[in-house]
Design goal:
Blueprint (H helix, E strand, L loop, with lengths): L3 H12 L6 E4 L6 H4 L5 H9 L9 H6 L12 H20 L5 E4 L20 H10 L5 E5 L6 H6 L6 E8 L22 E6 L5 H19 L3 E5 L17 H12 L5 E4 L8 H14 L35 H16 L23 E4 L15 E2 L8 H4 L2
Parallel strand pairs: 1-8, 2-7, 2-8, 3-4, 3-6, 4-5, 6-7
Antiparallel strand pairs: 1-9
The structure holds zinc ion.
């Protein structure tokens, strides 16, 4: 989860020339108070004051807030949280302003953090805070999670509301964080608004596509969200140090392409990803998918070129591991979820969306946020670089 992954991704995106298809902007740095829209005051205060040097004075809080082991204390911890969270909240605000149709924040997607507890390397839940921002404008927001781990923090935050639907595809069974059973469907008003697809080791491109597209297609039809937050954790890729799926970069990105095809305003976030050289490959390719730009497999020279040897290619080979998800299991679980979704009250006045609007989409006018040093200097609303801002059409407008 080191910020280096994001630095490498940014460098590769820049060296492929993809920044020419986007606007880059500095989000306004969010205050600690803004984080307490979701998190408890005492937890945020604790994150503000804790340092490696004063840890021994906070033994009880470290335990209470689950900080110190899986979620270590390091110098600049709070600034780190503030930066990735500012990117996600700022991105949501840009979408609310109709300034852009897609925002990417590869530094975000820390989906495990709870109201008053860190979890799985996640301290502040930027996904939840960004969704809360989107709810200021949109009646319904969809959260989709393709990280190999269950998106438990986001699901929990919105478990009893029908204004946010969460949908997570994840490895389940003796695996962190342990939640995300197919029968966990939400509570009270939120019943049938939490969708979980539990999976076994070895998910490959074809199998993933065979369940992702029908489930998301049904959600779009029944729930008709005004905005989508897509968490693109790269630990579901083949060869991940913590993961056990077998997806190629293209298989992972197929999810991004499919979600984009609906033309609904989208906030795209990062997440897990523990084989360092593969994370920038995946997120750079997904940046190209989101901008509608084809990029070549041969990597351009970049500051971290030596990480990508010996092949120096964007795409990575998958392994010959067995897919432990049988077609029967996948079909059965898919049918279970489609059945749950058929019980969702259809939104009145919405037409059925088909996912076939790709050709109408205008990839221009996108924004990209980066966590840059000195982010609090100067006017945060002034773009630090931009190009190709000629088009003002947005797919969200096209969709009416
Ligand atoms: Zn993960």
């Amino acid at each position: 989860m080191k910020p280096h992954r994001v630095r490498m991704t940014h460098n590769l995106v820049v060296n492929y020339g993809l920044y020419r298809k986007m606007e880059v902007f500095r989000p306004r740095l969010v205050s600690p108070t803004a984080m307490t829209r979701f998190h408890s005051d005492d937890y945020i205060n604790f994150l503000k004051v804790i340092t490696p040097d004063n840890m021994q004075d906070y033994i009880r809080q470290l335990q209470r807030f689950n900080v110190g082991e899986d979620c270590p204390v390091f110098d600049g911890l709070f600034e780190f949280c503030q930066l990735y969270t500012s990117g996600s909240i700022g991105g949501a605000a840009r979408l609310n302003d109709n300034a852009v149709d897609i925002v990417i924040n590869w530094a975000g997607g820390l989906h495990h953090a709870k109201k008053a507890e860190a979890s799985g390397f996640c301290y502040v839940n930027d996904c939840v805070l960004a969704i809360l921002e989107l709810l200021k404008k949109h009646e319904r927001v969809l959260y989709i999670d393709i990280d190999i781990h269950h998106g438990d923090g986001v699901e929990e935050a919105f478990y009893s509301t029908n204004r946010v639907m969460t949908c997570s595809f994840h490895k389940f069974g003796e695996y962190f964080p342990g939640t995300g059973d197919v029968h966990d469907v939400g509570h009270a008003d939120g019943k049938n608004y939490s969708i979980n697809f539990p999976l076994n080791d070895g998910m490959d491109d074809k199998a993933y596509k065979s369940v992702f597209r029908p489930v998301i297609g049904k959600i779009m039809e029944m729930f008709a969200p005004g905005a989508i937050v897509l968490q693109c954790g790269a630990d579901s890729l083949s060869g991940d140090r913590l993961g056990c799926f077998n997806l190629s970069v293209k298989g992972h990105a197929d999810c991004v392409e499919y979600v984009r095809s609906f033309g609904v305003p989208m906030l795209v976030l990062g997440g897990g990803g523990y084989t360092l050289r593969n994370v920038p490959r995946c997120w750079t390719y997904e940046t190209s998918v989101l901008t509608g730009e084809e990029i070549k497999d041969e990597l351009p020279f970049n500051d971290y070129f030596e990480y990508f040897g010996p092949d120096y290619r964007l795409n990575l080979p998958v392994s010959n591991m067995e897919n432990l998800n049988s077609p029967e299991y996948l079909e059965k679980t898919k049918v279970q979820l489609l059945d749950i979704l058929s019980q969702v009250e259809p939104v009145p006045g919405t037409q059925i969306q088909t996912g076939q609007v790709e050709s109408q989409q205008n990839p221009r006018g996108m924004n990209m946020e980066v966590d840059m040093p000195g982010v609090d200097e100067g006017n945060p609303d002034v773009r630090i670089s931009s190009s190709d801002t000629g088009s003002k059409e947005h797919s969200s407008e096209l969709m009416g």
